[in-house]
Specification:
Number of helices: 8
Low-confidence stretches: 177-186
Radius of gyration: 19 Å
Mean pLDDT: 90
Largest sheet: 2 strands, antiparallel
Helix content: 40-55%
Structural class: alpha+beta
Shape: globular
Distance between the termini: 37 Å
Strand order of the largest sheet: 1-2
Strand content: 5-15%
Order of helices and strands: EHEHHEEHHHHH
Amino acid sequence: MAGPLVTAAVSLPMDSRKAWMSELRDSKQLSPRRRERLTPAIEAGALQWSIGWVEARELDQLGMTSALKLAARRAIDQLPTPPEVVLADGRDDLGLPVATEMIVKGDRSVASIAAASIIAKTARDTWMNELDQRYPGYGFARHKGYGTAEHLRALQTLGPCPEHRRTFAPVAALDQPRFDLDAAAS
């Protein structure tokens, strides 16, 4: 419900057998500590890597599908050497300017997709920790912008901050002007 949409692109060496590569899996299956430990190893061991960001306000303007395509495009465009083929997690074509193979649950079966998942998740979590300092009271460092009970309570109390995604239903419901019955009666 809050924060940017983040993707990453990672090219791994074909012949590498680094110890950390056996630990690669879907970022959601790893603890934050393990992701934070793996991220520098991935960055150092990758042939190239980059991150694509779409801010919350852009996501609201574009919609989730178009924002995901834009974030993927930004990650690919920032690679020093354009890839010949992109392997990506999911089923919906990303509309990239290079050959793309979509792989359902690819972050569980393809090392480079898992590595990208870990880098993107770590970057986003770091950003949400920074937002927690900038916007105290929302609990961004704990829930990372997801729709937890704690986050929903904070939204009720504080209202949306600039990093909230206005098109997401719980935020949109609170982002409407409130009618003040006492002021209307006077």
